[in-house]
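Minutes, structural biology subgroup

Action item carried over from last meeting: produce the structure token record for ABC-2 type transport system permease protein (Nonomuraea maritima). EB confirmed the sequence was re-checked against the source entry. Recorded below for completeness.
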Amino acid sequence: MSSIVAAHTRYLMLELVRVPVALLAGSLFPAISMLAFVVPFTGGDAQAATTATASLMFFGAMSGAVIGLSIAVATDREQPWDPYVRTLPAGPFPRFAGRILATLAVMLLSTLPSLLVAALFTEATTTPLRLLLGFPALIAPSVPFMLLGLFIGFVMSAKGAVALSQVLFFPLAILGGLLIPPAILPGFIQAVSPFTPARGAAELLWAVAAGTTPDALALVMLGVWTVALAAAAAWAYRRDEGRRFT
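Output recorded by EB:
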């Protein structure tokens, strides 16, 4: 089974490499934002630059989890290859696992340009241990966003997934404080921010990368969102399975 999963992962990664627009968009936008806003305004402040780098790295990863995964799953469902794969003896798991692993690879790759900009042009600093822990800390809070991407992909058409994923992605990023520091957000947004999954993810990354004290409410809500979105994604998968294969 592991060899089949590896084969699907390799195939899906080749698809992405051959049409790298989504990968470039997900990685270049955070890096350009770093150059335009972080470097000139907070690049000389080590603490602020470190937290901003963590935020924009997660912004890129979140883009792959929500937008990239939802569009990929919705597009797969519209191809004749997908129902055929589900009828094979190995079942749908190898392709599904390959899609998740390919998405994780894209998410990690999308963080590298922001990390490079921070290292070259800002005073952002962290310890080797914090940097090593940063990547698991980036993947773990991405789980609810991958579940959101799966939910959208299983309930929407490809065109609908493009629109809905983008409509949800940017407000979540703004409310979570990924693009603007929470301290300078308007008061009503500050009140709502800890209840969003993006804020919990940011708090975890800031704690690992810069040693800040995370907001307990935001972390609890990140767990709540993970459970809720897992239930929603499972329901959407069963709904799709029931409609297409019964």
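Discussion: The chain has a mean pLDDT of 90.
Next step: EB to file the record with the rest of the batch.
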